[in-house]
Amino acid sequence: MRGVLFAFLGGAFITLQGVANARISQDIGIWQTATITQLTGFVMALLIFLFVRDGSLQMFKKVKPYYLVGGAFAAIIIFSNISAIHRIGVTLTISVVLIAQLGLTFVIDIKGWFGVGKQQMKLPQFIGIGMMVVGVIILGF
C-alpha cells in the first residue's frame, strides 16, 4: 500500500512541478527554470539525506559510473515537459508522458536492461497500452 501511495504522490508532484515550471519559464526562460528546479531539488534531497541518514556517501563508489548520469536526464525532462505544456497543455502532455514511460518500461522489462529481471508481456498488457494510446488520441482531438 505504501508503494501505491508513493507512486501517487510522485505522479501528483510531477504534474505540479510541470505546471509550476511552465509558469516560471514564461518569466525567466526554460533553461533558467530548469536550473532553478535542479538546484532546489538538489538542496531538498541534500537536506533530507542529512536528516534521515539512511545511507553513506561511501556507497557512491559501488554505483556504475554511467548510472550516475541519471540526474542529468532531469534537465531534458524539465525542458521537454515545459515545452510540451506550452504547446499542447497539461493534460495532453502528462498523458503522452505516461504512454512514453509505459512504452519504455515495457522495452526495459522485455529486454532486461539495467539489471532488471526479464518479464514476459502478454496480450492484456499490449491491449492496455493500446487503450491508453487511443484514449490520448481521443483526448487530443
Automatic annotation (TrEMBL):
Record's GO cellular component terms: plasma membrane
Keywords: Membrane, Transmembrane, Transmembrane helix
Domain of life of the organism encoding this protein: Bacteria
Signal sequence, start to end: none
The keyword Transmembrane helix is annotated on this UniProt entry: yes
Coiled coil: none
Transmembrane segments: 32-52, 64-82, 88-110, 122-140
Stored PANTHER family: INNER MEMBRANE PROTEIN YDCZ, MEMBRANE PROTEIN
Name of the protein this chain belongs to: DMT family transporter
